[in-house]
């Protein structure tokens, strides 16, 4: 169900009290199963296969396909552990109609990316194959459905390909190894106590992965890949009758095997006693505790079920807001805390209380978590608190309803996947909106407060505690943790004070300025205004989303314009000001003040620019402009001291054990190799935090933001131009300005060292080596050079995957990166990285470098040129219909002083691009003379 579990979390800061409440149908029966959305076609073939079809135009000219198999690792026998997941790999390595890599080559040839548009996943209970293709060519459409059919019944399991793929699966397993996995390996047997889930992790046994014969794959495939356990999902910009014909034609001929085993749901048994996992690890950097209260699942089939889930979600939101407020104290009791619900497989769920703890305050942190939970359970919440959360939920649902025609096909495909696997209702957004309105309109506070009764549960409980391994630190005992829980429950916090301010968001409307110069760029539909204070405003109205306006504002300069000894105050300035609030409101008061509105605004100071990013709804535009005005002109100074203490305290806790993290140590070593002791490239540690200074951060913030004449504001979305002009004149043209020439980012003398460099670090317990290969240097910046580098990067991504993964089975994935920088001077940074078996690292680096040298000396392969070109064209075709695409491109065009029309000219540039330029880019931007090779090896390595 689109909103059942996930929707409200997406709209955390939005809300409204609707003037007109949506109505339920007159014949709506609260106790009857919810109906199926009339916009989705659901069918079942004679062999039991179910299908879900929906016509949807976002993105245009695309279809999102899924083959869902209702079987996963739980269906494996003891000698098959890992086969369900390994089998998913084999679906890409040879089927009846697609030999190894032919499937991937076909998809890349039509502009789709492996991993993004072609992928699969295996879990305990199901296996999902995903495919997105353009709907503009009958041959491609037929092939797409043939791929689904082949996955369902025609995987070949060539023994040679199985052998070749074993290494890839092992490397996927290896990439997940580390402190987190070691901790999970000890916790999962308790979370899933005495259940099959604890013994069937989807990644499986590496002994089985490395040794299972082809017959074992076929046995699992023939038993569990059968039509009565399959669902086919198709959502996209297509003719539903044609799609249904394809499904019926291709999948009706599938047959269920005789004497097929019954699919039995695995149970998670109850246990009266409390189970404990108390673990330390030498690579963990922070302390935490989680408490699971296991519960029986509740239904979600009827209106009554839906209403109960809404009430539960309200309760969690209310409690999480209170828990979050404690983190803003000057000396907070914990780093973070939250409550929520989670499913434990399909037969059990749990309420989970989580807390990130402070060293020396373990007992206090757990006590305060439990005390807040107990206070809410005992005293309940106030009507004002609930009204704000209700308004948030209604507004979130109203926005989803308004955007129903702009919902991405992948969202629907995921929803219908859940409908198939766990029978989640799919009543459609119209009925869900009506249920939200009807159920929340007259909701009784006492009914919400009763949810807290479940937190008094004593049995069926699991307590998990993790901490860094440190000399002299003694882990708490089970009795210590229980004592903290019980002490917290009995702790009297007094009555909760709902700190709400009645002051208006902006007490006095500023005197408006003027728009002194206007241009209209007709080809791209963009308004270009210069204001009386020197600010520039770029406005592009769109109809891509009905309830979205995006903004990005920037000014060149950033932290490059402060001295080295002011760098830390500059780096932490927006963090402090973000927590102190704006105008007369502290952060808590501001959030409550903005309840009922779609408003998000974040300031940032980067190395070469300062910026504001935000989003709003057309109906909240004036409030958004007020927020922008206040953020720039009136940061809250009276709460700055409290924010400073709180932020510094939490940062100190976060960096206290940083040296225990292999990844952090590795990154620090790379920075040192490139930048030596340059003050702007030192790790953030306790000593550096002492350089924080609240008043200096405030001064830097004001200096960077209170000069409107240096700013460009870019707006994209559902904008009515004439009323928008008034907001711009009132709230942007009135911003303060200093005049003078535009500021420019300055050179800081921190260019990376040139030449051949190396980093070799031994840190970490797992048998895994992480490799990073970097190229850096000066470069002439131009749009043409930037695109040539992007093209070269695309070519190398294909070759690295083919050689390092497919041919050698040495990695699970390779990341190739590359960018051309413009500020403060032209430069490039590029390279590639992966994790692998320690004994294979040098050979894989050599193979990777050979792919670069091959491109430099021989040029690109024609088939790969066509793949990259088609991918770029398809991405542009999709992006041109999205607000985010226009926002980032318009910002870029202004910053680079380019014509906006160049955005539309991109496809012609791609088609005319000479692949020889990509070869030249590989020579320029992957220069072997400026090469750093970095290894993070396990500690035992000789």
From TrEMBL:
Any one GO BP annotation for this protein: proteolysis
Record has Signal as a keyword: yes
Molecular function terms, GO-annotated: metal ion binding; metalloendopeptidase activity
Residue ranges occupied by any Peptidase M16 C-terminal domain in the UniProt entry: 214-391, 701-870
Taxonomy, superkingdom: Bacteria
Gene3D superfamilies, A to Z: Metalloenzyme, LuxS/M16 peptidase-like
Record's keyword terms, sorted: Hydrolase, Metal-binding, Metalloprotease, Protease, Signal, Zinc
Domain Peptidase M16 N-terminal: 56-176
Signal peptide limits: 1-22
Cofactor(s) required, per the database record: Zn(2+)
PANTHER family xrefs: NARDILYSIN (PTHR43690), ZINC PROTEASE PQQL-LIKE (PTHR43690:SF34)
Family: Belongs to the peptidase M16 family.
Protein known as: Insulinase family protein
The species this protein was found in: Pelagicoccus enzymogenes
